[in-house]
C-alpha cells in the first residue's frame, strides 16, 4: 500500500531538510515527517495514524519480514524510523488495537511499545486479553534472524483461572515451519516446555507443578501438584490431558476443550 495524496511543507535549514506532511493509505489519513542531515547522511522518519488495518501495514519494512498471518485494525499507530549512514534501520513504535486475529485467534485490548532493529527487538510494554485471560504487563526481548526470532519474555499481572500471577521463559519461532517452541516458569512452582504449530493450530505442553496449583472453572475447584501433558487442537476444539499427581495417582481426559474457551 502506497501513501497517496501527499500535502506538506519542506524547509531547508542549511545542510538539513525538514518535511512535515499528511497523506492517505487506502483513504485513511496519516501524518508523517522527515528530518535529513546531509553532513551525517542520516535520516529520521516519523509516521502516525488512526484506524489503520493490519493489511495497510503488513507490506512495510520488518512487518513484512515477520510474515505474521493477522487481520484487524489498529486504532492508533505511532512510529519513528531512524536510518544511519550505514543504511542501518531502527524503529521505535507504539500501537493500540481493540482486536486483532492472529492465525485465527482473537486478541483484544492490545497495547504495545517496541524498539525494532535489523537484528534484534525489544517490547518494553505489552498488554492484551485472550479469551477470558489477561496480561497487564509484558516484556519481550529477542534476536531476529533469517530463520525466525528467538529470545526471552516476562509476563506480570496475569489474570487467569489458575493461581499464576507472573511467568517468564525463552522462545524460538521458525518462519519455515511456523512453529513456536517455548519454556514457561512461574516462581519456584511451575516448570513447563511447549510447542505451538501456527499451521496446524496445535498446542502441546509438558509441565511439572512442584507445589499445589489451584484451578477455578465454572464453580469447580481443582488443586493439583505433579506432572501434566496437554495437547490441544484448536481447529477441532479437542483436548487431551494427562495428569499424574505427586501422590502417584493419575487421570486422563480426552474430548471437547473446556479450558481455553
Task: Give a nutshell description of this structure.
With 261 residues, the chain is mainly β. The protein is 3% helix and 71% strand. The protein has a 19-stranded antiparallel beta sheet that branches.
Description:
The protein has 2 helices and 19 strands. By secondary structure, the protein is mainly beta. The chain has a 19-stranded antiparallel β-sheet that branches. β13 and β14 form a beta hairpin. The model has no long low-confidence stretch (mean pLDDT 85).
Uncertain ranges: none
The average pLDDT is 85
N- to C-terminal separation?
36 Å
Shape: elongated
Percent of residues in helices: under 10%
Return the structural class.
Answer: mainly beta
Helix-strand pattern, N to C? Answer: EEEEEHHEEEEEEEEEEEEEE
Largest sheet: 19 strands, antiparallel
Helix-strand layout with pairing:
Elements: E1 4-13, E2 16-25, E3 28-37, E4 42-49, E5 52-53, H1 54-57, H2 63-66, E6 70-74, E7 76-83, E8 89-102, E9 105-117, E10 120-130, E11 133-144, E12 148-159, E13 166-174, E14 179-186, E15 190-197, E16 202-217, E17 220-233, E18 238-245, E19 250-256
Antiparallel strand pairs: 1-2, 2-3, 3-4, 4-7, 5-6, 6-8, 7-8, 8-9, 9-10, 10-11, 11-12, 12-13, 13-14, 14-15, 15-16, 16-17, 17-18, 18-19
